[in-house]
Specification:
The longest helix is centred in the middle third of the chain and has 57 residues. The protein is 94% helix and 0% strand. The protein starts with a helix and ends with a helix. The protein has one domain. The chain is mostly helical.
Length: 72
């Protein structure tokens, strides 16, 4: 795409404008891909936080449960 845009810019005599349009195009692509990547990472992050919360909760309640079993 870049080579084609440069050649069109050379033919029309406006290389700077074509390079700006190409830069804008690639910037939009990068923004789109970053948005997709964050949407893909979100479920894994939620799963990780859920597992971490489960471990912390078990770390608090298991000793209390063991103490209640010891009194019986």
């Amino acid at each position: 795409l870049l080579i084609q845009m440069i050649s069109v810019g050379e033919e029309t005599g406006d290389v700077a404008q074509m390079l700006e349009e190409t830069a804008d195009h690639y910037e939009r692509e990068v923004d789109y891909e970053l948005g997709n990547m964050s949407a893909l990472i979100e479920p894994f992050l939620l799963l990780f936080l859920g597992v971490l919360l489960l471990i912390l909760t078990l770390g608090v309640f298991l000793p209390m449960w063991d103490l209640s079993q010891a009194f019986r």
